[in-house]
Design brief:
This protein has 286 residues and is mostly helical. It folds into two domains: 233 residues, no CATH class; 33 residues, no CATH class. 66% of the residues lie in helices and 0% in strands. The protein has twelve helices and no strands. Helix 3 packs parallel to helix 10 and helix 6 crosses helix 8.
């Protein structure tokens, strides 16, 4: 099952031409682009980043060169994007990484499997395997997040089935990956033309359409905005504007001790033991 192209089986068993599936993929791409642009205009994200950048330039202590900005962009991509280093909570980071990489593999292999049609039988076993593993990775990371570390459940005491508009992205993503696997399994067990297989396929398409067509109301566009915000933050540190935040002084300097005479008592070289503090009880949220 996991090495067979489910879209090839579907095309061979039902009157569904490869061109129709390819047109659907292209439509989803345009929905993502259009939805993201509408989100930028509606939430004024582009205007916010531009105006914030201009305001920080006025208080910058030095100009960041183009080469340095490229280095910061590479650092942002390597850390905040590829490693999700902004998540301090280990479980939250692992869950996010499984979901993110699973989504990337799932989307890319879906396009490869569909645009590779019509193909010889058994011609794409590795791509089909990665498609199934991508869906499994989404389910693993997504359900781990939903049932264990979802913030409004763990921190605010709400039930796991309390769904809001902000959950539109993760719910539609989980339904897409889950019913993709269910559809593939039903194809292998009952055949592509069976009622169970067709129902699973309809739910899969409905969930994926919801995922890619509701960007304006979901958190889908965050995957584009977060790296931009992380990059701008690194530039603000490099040019000295520090996002309008005060600099952290050298706690051991005489000037700092004179300005803040109580610092040596609780932040010096050998501060007193004040207990576990926030580490006394493990947090149940991220």
């Amino acid at each position: 099952m996991i090495t067979s192209n489910p879209f090839e089986v579907l095309s061979a068993s039902l009157p569904l031409e490869p061109g129709v599936m390819q047109a659907y993929v292209v439509l989803m791409v345009f929905l993502v682009i259009g939805g993201t642009l509408l989100d930028v205009v509606h939430k004024k994200s582009g205007k916010y980043f531009f105006e914030k950048g201009q305001a920080l330039k006025k208080i910058a202590k030095r100009e960041v060169s183009g080469g340095e900005k490229i280095g910061l962009a590479v650092s942002t991509f390597a850390n905040e994007v590829l490693r999700s280093s902004e998540f301090e909570n280990r479980d939250r980071r692992i869950s996010h990484l499984f979901t993110m990489y699973g989504f990337i593999f799932f989307v890319v292999t879906t396009a490869i499997l569909i645009f590779g049609l019509p193909a010889a039988e058994g011609g794409t076993p590795i791509t089909a395997l990665l498609w199934h593993l991508g869906a499994l990775s989404i389910c693993f990371g997504g359900y781990w997040f939903w049932f264990k570390i979802r913030v409004d459940v763990r921190a605010e005491g709400n039930q796991w089935y309390n769904v809001h508009q902000s959950d539109l992205f993760v719910v539609s993503l989980l339904l897409t990956a889950t019913f993709a696997l269910v559809w593939s399994a039903m194809q292998a067990i009952t055949g592509a033309a069976s009622a169970l297989s067709i129902i699973a396929f309809i739910v899969f398409i409905a969930a994926s359409t919801t995922l890619f067509s509701t960007i304006l109301w979901s958190k889908f566009a965050h995957m584009f905005f977060k790296p931009a915000a992380a990059f701008q933050k690194k530039v603000a540190v490099a040019d000295g504007s520090r996002d309008k935040l005060p600099e952290i002084p050298d706690l051991s300097s005489a000037e700092c001790k004179e300005r803040y005479p109580d610092i040596p008592e609780y932040m010096g070289d050998n501060p007193p033991n004040m207990g576990l503090g926030i580490k006394r009880e493990a947090p149940s949220h991220y």
